[in-house]
Specification:
Shape: elongated
Low-confidence stretches: none
Structural class: alpha+beta
Radius of gyration: 20 Å
Helix content: 25-40%
CATH architecture of the largest domain: Alpha-Beta Complex
Number of helices: 7
CATH superfamily of the largest domain: Nucleoside Triphosphate Pyrophosphohydrolase
Distance between the termini: 56 Å
Number of domains: 2
Mean pLDDT: 93
Length: 229
């Protein structure tokens, strides 16, 4: 039986993480300068090779902790990339993960260590190998999710304005939304708790702050809904 395994080709498996963040104005992706050949010094997604004693999810979590310093990050396995010549050094299959983090919470030290930088999704450099394709796939998935699940818990600060939530949706969908229609649709989901506090940075009158009702939010994530805007 062992002989049957030994005669098969041995392949390298990697994980690559598309790390999305939102700075209250723009949807961004965290990229690194690749630290080894081939393509050393070029912009890349953060990734790593699967170790023999870990699962794919564990490998992705290890990569994310290394770059962001954060545990318990939302992540979703997207797709496997297996083109024969995608890596010129060795035959490597990569599994892409999409992740969402709050930019304000991630640690600066790991970012500096890997020469990482946040880029707006509409102003990206050319990435190594097939990483641009991975990122486009992750964006399509994120846009689709806005129509079937609530978005924002992982990307926004704990307290936020309705305008900030609308700007997040506009950044993901890459289009302007009608304010009244958006507010009515969001309120119909009952996923927000309106606070008595106001954000007065943008005007003297100020805007009410909101929080997500995490219990209802998670129920909507599980049950889904139709939220086409």
């Amino acid at each position: 039986m062992l002989h049957n395994y030994q005669k098969e080709d041995k392949l390298i498996v990697a994980v690559d993480c598309i790390i999305f963040g939102f700075d209250t104005e723009n949807l961004k992706v965290l990229l690194i300068k690749r630290g080894f050949e081939p393509k050393k010094g070029n912009w890349s997604l953060m990734g790593g090779f699967l170790k023999k004693d870990e699962t794919l999810n564990e490998a992705a979590q290890r990569v994310l902790i290394k770059l962001t310093g954060l545990n318990n990050i939302y992540m979703e396995q997207l797709e496997a990339y297996s083109e024969v010549d995608r890596d010129p050094v060795e035959r490597t299959i990569s599994v892409a993960y999409s992740t969402l983090i709050n930019i304000q919470n991630h640690e600066k030290e790991p970012q500096q260590q890997y020469s990482a930088k946040w880029f707006a999704v509409d102003d990206l450099p050319k990435l190594v190998f097939d990483h641009n394709s991975m990122l486009k796939r992750a964006m399509r998935r994120l846009r689709h999710k806005t129509t079937i699940q609530p978005i924002g818990l992982e990307l926004l600060p704990e307290k936020f304005t309705m305008l900030q939530l609308q700007k997040l949706y506009e950044a993901i969908l890459n289009k302007k939304l009608d304010k009244r229609n958006f507010v009515n649709k969001i309120n119909s989901l009952k996923i927000l708790i309106k606070l008595s506090e106001k954000d007065k940075r943008s005007s003297r009158k100020g805007s009410f702050l909101y929080q997500f009702d995490q219990k209802v939010y998670q129920e909507k994530v599980t049950s889904g809904f139709d939220f086409r805007l």
